[in-house]
Design brief:
heterodimer; A: 406 residues; alpha/beta; OB fold (Dihydrolipoamide Acetyltransferase, E2P); Rossmann fold; 4 domains; 5-stranded parallel beta sheet; 42% helix; B: 75 residues; alpha+beta; two-stranded antiparallel ribbon; 2 strands
Chain lengths: 406, 75
């Protein structure tokens, strides 16, 4: 049995589907509102596992749901927080759920410096809280590094600049290129990986993290808190050189030394061989002077002993004199031209000691024959008949000539 | 990676030279000892100058091989 029902009115036209309505509203909205800028305060900010951002923009009167897709969101340098005042540019739409929403393509913080300033301040505060910016954390650079890791792009001028400067100043060096991307997508993790690799090379004495000049956006990765922490964690001292003189990044702030440019980093990293050559000269001079002083003292002692013992020590004295002359020659060779006067002094010293022995002998009535050049004449062959020579006696020299021999 | 054996570094040479000059300047040193130190000093000076004059920059590129092993390739 069928119960009677009251007659219900039927639509006089075909009903629209929900999808048709929502899509129609979307088309109408998009037609009425071309892409536009909206100013408001962020609330209910959430990052979904897909990487898309969902939040609302509100002002005292209303609120507007917003979505920012991952591909757009990842260009924003910091995660927005609720309460942040922003400018959002995007297209009005209606979601599948029928909600009015703004599809945000670009998001700027209204504060000066925008999201970059927000991100920078957030990272800086975190690093400071952990003491990573403290001046007392700075380590001194090695005076004579023997191996330096260079974390930079394998392309570009930075590596070549560093090689050129280091090679000119200090060639006694191994430079190890640890290649990494230095801008754009993935650069932060790449830099962290490069720094971790550098830490695994036990022979490195120093690490330079460098990048050439670029826009603020290009350099931005060096303000990444994770990159800065990786630099701070380096086993060996670090020099950072990012961009030009006026660019300062968090990486610069945590490094042990900041250099204005990659070339300047190389200059700070190695000594100048000209300076070291001067230091070697000074050490050579010091060595010469010190040993000359020792020889003078020895000379005094020998003289003293000689006076007391007479001719008994002649041979030892002669040997000592010979040794002193050899030393003087070595000093001259070692210390170079700059020590010519020291050389002369030592030669004189050696010669005087050498002369000490013959002089003692001459006092006893012996004489030494020498040619015009001072060479000692010992054998018959040294005295050609009629040849001139000089005879050294205890108080001077006598010119002499060999008589013809029978 | 095999650690290559190195001759004394310039830093060691300079440090040792400083020490030698200081010892020589001290009064309580007999001549034999002084001359031995001097000879060592001259040798270190010669080695240091040679190192400074002849050294050539060694350029390497670090590469992480499969398995995580580190390789240094000469550039």
């Amino acid at each position: 049995m069928t119960l009677p029902l009251p007659l219900e009115a039927e639509p006089r036209e075909r009903p629209a589907t929900v999808t048709e309505v929502v899509e129609g509203a979307r088309r109408t909205l998009q037609h009425a509102f071309p892409p536009l800028w909206v100013e408001g305060e962020i609330s209910n900010f959430k990052v979904w596992s897909s990487g898309h951002w969902y939040f609302s923009l509100k002002d005292p009167g209303s609120q507007l749901k917003c979505v920012m897709f991952r591909s757009d969101a990842r260009r924003v340098p910091a995660l927005p927080q609720d309460g942040l005042k922003v400018y959002a540019r995007g297209e009005l739409s209606v979601s599948k759920r029928g909600d009015l929403e703004l599809i945000v393509r670009q998001l700027l913080a209204t504060t000066e410096g925008g999201f970059y300033a927000v991100a920078l301040e957030r990272a800086r505060a975190a690093l400071e809280k952990d003491g990573l910016l403290a001046p007392e954390r700075k380590r001194p650079l090695p005076t004579f590094p023997r191996a330096i890791g260079v974390v930079t792009s394998p392309e570009g001028a930075v590596w070549h600049d560093i090689v050129a400067v280091a090679g000119r100043r200090w060639p006694d060096l191994e430079l190890v290129l640890i290649g990494t991307r230095v801008q754009g997508e993935g650069a932060a993790t790449d830099l962290m990986r490069a720094l971790a690799l550098a830490d695994r090379l036990p022979h490195l004495d120093l690490v330079i993290v460098a990048r050439g000049g670029g826009s603020k956006e290009d350099l931005w990765v060096f303000n990444d808190e994770r990159v800065a922490r990786a630099v701070a964690a380096s086993r060996v001292p670090t020099i950072a050189a990012v961009g030009h003189e006026t660019d300062v990044t968090l990486t610069d702030l945590v490094a042990d030394v900041r250099a204005p440019t990659p070339s300047a980093a190389a200059e700070k990293a190695v000594p100048d061989r000209a300076d070291v050559a001067r230091r070697l000269d000074a050490l050579g001079a010091g060595l010469g002077a010190a040993v000359a002083r020792r020889l003078e003292i020895a000379d005094e002692r020998v003289r003293h002993a000689s006076t007391r013992l007479g001719g008994a020590v002649d041979r030892r004295l002669a040997a000592t004199g010979e040794r002193l002359r050899r030393q003087a020659a070595r000093i001259a060779a070692a210390c170079g031209v700059r020590l010519a006067s020291r050389h002369a002094e030592l030669s004189r010293l050696g010669a005087s000691l050498d002369a000490l022995s013959p002089l003692k002998v001459l006092e006893r009535g012996y004489a030494v024959a020498r040619d015009a050049g001072g060479r000692v004449l010992r054998r018959l062959a040294d005295f050609p008949p009629g040849g001139a020579f000089r005879l050294r006696v205890t108080d001077g020299e006598v010119p002499a000539r060999a008589e013809p021999r029978p | 990676m095999s650690a290559e054996r190195r001759p004394p570094s310039l830093e060691e040479d300079l440090g040792r030279l400083d020490a030698i000059v200081r010892s020589l300047e001290a009064e309580d040193l007999d001549l034999d000892r002084a001359l031995a130190l001097f000879e060592e000093g001259v040798e270190r000076l010669r080695a240091a100058r040679e190192r400074l004059g002849e050294a050539e920059l060694r350029l390497k590129a670090l590469r992480e091989a499969a398995g995580g092993e580190l390789k240094l390739d000469a550039i």
